[in-house]
Amino acid sequence: MSFDLITLSFFLLFLGFLLVCIIRMFFCLLRLGDERRQMIVGKACTFSFTGTVGYLLLSVLRAFFHGQTVLLNPLITLSTVAILFTCSLAWYQRKLGG
């Protein structure tokens, strides 16, 4: 019983983390700032876009070589983009001093 409660609490904590990352990503994209902040957000957007295109390309290649279509879950795709954006935003803020 306690194992199920621990697993459930970790799952809910992970879902909360994903929700915070998704909301933060959208608010960071909407908020205007000075030129340095725009450069940091632009670089983070470029990195997350490149990662998303790579993820989709690997999915297409996998479907092509296995001969079957694989349905992509939109929540997993959005979560992947949000985590990539959050990590790259933190990296470029640290690197460029934002």
Concise summary:
By secondary structure, the chain is an all-alpha fold.
C-alpha-based Rg, rounded: 17 Å
In total, the number of domains comes to 1
Percent helix among the residues?
over 70%
Largest sheet: none
Question: Unreliable stretches, pLDDT < 50, 5 or more residues?
Answer: none
Distance between the termini: 46 Å
Strand content: under 5%
Q: What oligomeric state do the depicted chains represent?
A: single chain
Q: How many β-strand stretches?
A: 0
Q: How do the SSEs run, as a string of H and E?
A: HHH
Question: What number is the mean pLDDT?
Answer: 88
Secondary-structure content class: mainly alpha
Shape: flat
Description:
- By secondary structure, this protein is an all-alpha fold.
- It has one domain (2-96).
- It is 86% helix and 0% strand.
- The protein has helices at residues 2-30, 35-66, 74-96.
- α1 packs across α3 and α2 (35-66) runs antiparallel to α3 (74-96).
- Keywords: Membrane, Transmembrane, Transmembrane helix.
- The chain crosses the membrane at residues 6-32, 44-65, 71-92.
Question: What's the topology here?
Answer:
Layout: H1 2-30, H2 35-66, H3 74-96
What features would you highlight for this structure?
single chain, 98 residues, mainly alpha, flat, transmembrane helix
